[in-house]
Design goal:
Number of domains: 1
Strand content: 15-25%
Number of helices: 5
Distance between the termini: 22 Å
CATH architecture: 3-Layer(aba) Sandwich
CATH topology: Rossmann fold
Oligomer: single chain
CATH class: Alpha Beta
Largest sheet: 8 strands, mixed
CATH superfamily: NAD(P)-binding Rossmann-like Domain
Helix content: 25-40%
Length: 235
């Protein structure tokens, strides 16, 4: 399936200051998009400094007012949004057994990984509805697949991704009257990032590939699915 023409389309990438989010932003810029790269602190993203069409903005997906401020800015500055990449996420309970998990860590994980995505969708998808087209990509994980449940640890992170998968499928269903707004989730795989560690087999470029592919799907592409390596992955 070939990509659509992406020149001058406006994409927003959350959590773009490092890792997969940074690489997604870089690849979208390579495709001619205008990219709003966000981070919680608004750090300068030096790796993107050579690109002409990058706009670094502060965004805390866990804060209603922060999301609203950015939505107002995007509307005023760009007149809307074409692509939303919900990449920002946290993993506070790596390999912590479920029976030892702190409930505060569970709540904080859901606040970012699930509620933060919903906040962004509620703020930016209406812009796509007004245009009649758009692409939403939620960064999930194979660890959130109920088909492939192994081990009993990392409950907060894993269940947040399971819930994110449900949000993806349900939002795509709700948008069925807007056939050119495609909503999908991407599994990057085990990637050499701060979360994945140095022993992971995949580079950040490989981990970002499926998300970028979903962000550039042509009209008539799939919606409401979970994908890894550009292929459907079981829920």
């Amino acid at each position: 399936m070939t990509s659509e023409n992406t020149t001058n389309k406006v994409a927003l990438v959350t959590g773009a200051n490092r890792g997969i989010g940074l690489e997604i932003a870089r690849q979208l810029l390579d495709k001619g998009m205008r990219v709003i790269a966000t981070s919680r602190s608004g750090d300068r993203i030096d790796e993107l400094a050579g690109f002409e069409h990058v706009d670094v903005q502060v965004l805390n997906v866990g804060d209603d007012s922060s999301v609203k401020r950015l939505a107002d800015y995007v509307e005023q500055q760009y007149g809307g949004l074409d692509v939303l990449i919900n990449n920002a996420g946290i993993a506070l309970d790596k390999w912590v057994p479920a029976l030892s998990l702190k409930l505060d860590d569970y709540r904080a994980t859901m606040e970012t990984n699930l509620y933060g995505v919903l906040r962004c969708c509620q703020a930016f998808v209406p812009m796509m509805q007004r245009r009649g087209s758009g692409r939403v990509v939620n960064l999930s994980s194979e660890l959130g697949s109920l088909t492939d449940v192994q081990m009993g640890s990392s409950l907060a992170y894993r269940s947040s991704k399971t819930a994110l998968n449900s949000l993806t499928a349900l939002l795509a269903c709700e948008l069925k009257d807007f056939p050119d707004i495609l909503v999908n989730a991407s599994c990057p795989g085990w990637v050499r990032t701060e979360l994945g560690g140095d022993d992971a087999p995949l580079s950040v470029a490989e981990g970002a590939d499926t998300a970028v592919w979903l962000a550039t799907l042509p009209a008539g592409g799939p919606s409401g699915g979970l994908f890894r390596e550009r292929a459907p992955y079981p829920w």
